Amino acid sequence: MYHSCFVYDERLDIHVPSLDRPFEAYHIEERLAMIESWESIRGRIPTKVMVLERLIERKLSEMGNENDFEKSCQINGEIAELASQIHDLQIWYRISQDEPTAKSHL
After folding, report:
1. What is the pLDDT of residue 103?
2. Helical axes 69-94 vs 28-64, angle rounded to 10°
3. Over the chain, what is the mean pLDDT?
4. What is the DSSP code string of 45-65?
């Protein structure tokens, strides 16, 4: 399904662009296939963000009920990582083929 110009990012659980040359250097058919693949990937990002937000809510509740300082610190670190994943997903979501910055990624 995904064009060979995408690699799987395990942390974000999505395929992200990984081009070996400038976007404009690809044939038009390849570019159209990349754009189609990217739009399919991009369309699933909001759902991934919602799932991560729910996890953060559960972790916040868990942390609010935690009396052990070490465990609270661990949970806080987990929340920070989830928030970082959301941030990165939102950056990828904003990248579309119409933006000049997308050409360096896509």
Report:
1. 46
2. 160
3. 89
4. HHHHHHHHHHHHHHHHHHHHT
pLDDT digit string, tens, across residues 44-77: 999 999 999 999 999 999 999 999 999 999 999 9
Tokens of residue 3, six digits: 């064009």
Q: Which residues contact 5 (CB under 8 A, 6 or more apart)?
A: 17, 18, 19, 20, 26, 30, 34
Token pair 């990248």 is found at 95
**What is the C-alpha to C-alpha distance for residues 67 and 77, in angstroms, rounded to an integer?**
16
Record the tokens describing residue 50, joined without a space. 């919602």
Tokens encoding 74: 């661990």
Residues whose CB falls within 8 Å of the CB of residue 44, separated by 6 or more in sequence, listed in order? 14
> 13-36, pLDDT tens digit by residue?
999 999 999 999 999 999 999 999
Is the pTM higher than 0.70? The answer reads: yes
Residue the block writes with tokens 């159209």: 32
Q: Where are the alpha helices (DSSP H) in 1-106?
A: 28-64, 69-94, 102-105
